[in-house]
Amino acid sequence: MRRLEREWRGGKVLYVEALSPAGRAFGQRWGLRLTPSLALFDAQGRLVHVWTGATTIPGVEELERRLREPGVPE
Known about the structure:
Blueprint lengths: L1 H6 L13 H10 L6 E5 L5 E6 L7 H9 L6
Antiparallel strand pairs: 1-2
């Protein structure tokens, strides 16, 4: 995910420690059950998509595509 932080200029990458009180609350709020997870939100704060697992981290192109697609989070 550090690669996304360096490469993506279309948004912000924020890290939440899953075992902290804030991390637990965030995970519960958005239904994140495994780490690592990446949650993509649009500019209005709506959940767009969630990726779970170390091997499923998307590239910049995937993030941009997901933000352009209308629909329900998977």
